[in-house]
Amino acid sequence: MSSSTSNMFCSRCNEGFEEREKIVNSVIMYPTIRGGEVWHQSCFVCAQCFRPFSKDAIFYEFEGRKYCEHDFHVLFAPCCGHCHEFVIGRVIKALNNNWHPMCFRCELCQTPLADQGFFKNTGRALCHDCNAKERAAAIGKYICFKCHSIIDEGIPLKYKGEPYHPYHFNCKNCGVELNSDARTIKEELYCLRCHDKMGIPICGACHRPIEERIVTALGKNWHVEHFPFLGHRHYEKKGLAYCETHYHQLFGNLCYVCNQGDVFTALNKAWCVEHFQCSWCDTKLNQKSKFYDVDLKPCCKNCYAKFPTELKKRLKKQYTERTITTKKHIVLLVQI
C-alpha cells in the first residue's frame, strides 16, 4: 500500500484501500462535497438500490446517505396535487397537498397563486377577485369590475357586460355622475336626460338604446332579437300581445282537430276548413254543404243515404230529443 492511500479510509465501509486501487475522490469528482471524502468504487452506490454512481451521475444526499435521482424522488420528493409529478425545488404547501408553483392556480380563473396568496372557499383555492365574486353571488350581490368590492346598495351599472358602481362613471355629454339609469351609445355612457335629448328609441324589453333595426309594436319599440313574436303571427288586445293559440283560447275558438284559429262552429264544436269533413269517407265539407249529425260527427249526404233505415230512424229520434232538451235548457236559463 502506498503512502498516498495508507491513511485513507472509505467513507462508507471505513476500510482502507489496496495499493493502486481505484478511488472515488469527492474533491476531484464532486468538488461541492465538503471534507474530501473518498470511497471504494464498489462502495460509491445509491443507499436504496445499491447501483453504483457513474462519473457524471446526479445524486442527492439526505441524513448522510446518498441516493440516485429516482430513489430520492420516490422516498423524499412530494408529488404535485395537480400534475402528480415530483416537485423538485420550491414546494407550495396548501389545502393539505403539495404543488409546483405554476400548478397552484385559482380554480376559477387559473391565475397563479404562489406569490399572491389565496383564499380557501368551499375547499377551493381562489384568488382575491374570484373569492369576492363567489361571496357576493352567495348573498345575491354583484362585484364591481373596477374596484372589486361588493355593490351593496342600488342597482349596478352594466357596461360592456360587466357590473360597476355607477359613481365610477360620468356622462359623456354633461359630465354628471351616473346612476344605474345610464345609457350606452357606441360604448360611451350618457345620463338619461342627455340620452333622451338625442331621440334614440329604447327597447321595451331590455330598456337599452336601439341603434339598428327597430320593431314597433304594442305602442313600444323593440330590438329585433327582443321582440317575442318576431317571424310569427301575434294578436294585440288591451295593450298586450298573445300568440295565436293563446289568443283564441282566451278570446275566441280553436279548431276541434288541430287547435288552430280561423274556424266556424258546427255540431257544438269549432272547425277549420281543412278538418271539417265527413267522418266516414273524408269528403271535405263546408258551411254550405249539406251534412248530417251522426253522434255529433259530420256525415255527408251520400254516406248517410247508405245507412240502414232503422239506424236513420234512431238517429232522427236522438236528434229530435237533443233539440227539445236544448230548447228547454234555453228557456230555463231565460227564466232564471
TrEMBL record:
Gene3D superfamilies: Cysteine Rich Protein
Domain of life: Eukaryota
GO cellular component: cell-cell junction; cytoplasm; focal adhesion
Keyword Zinc among record annotations: yes
InterPro entries noted in UniProt: LIMS1/2-like_LIM1, PINCH-1-4-like, PINCH-1/2-like, Znf_LIM
A Gene Ontology molecular function term of the record: metal ion binding
PANTHER family: LIM DOMAIN-CONTAINING PROTEIN (PTHR24210)
Name of protein: LIM domain-containing protein
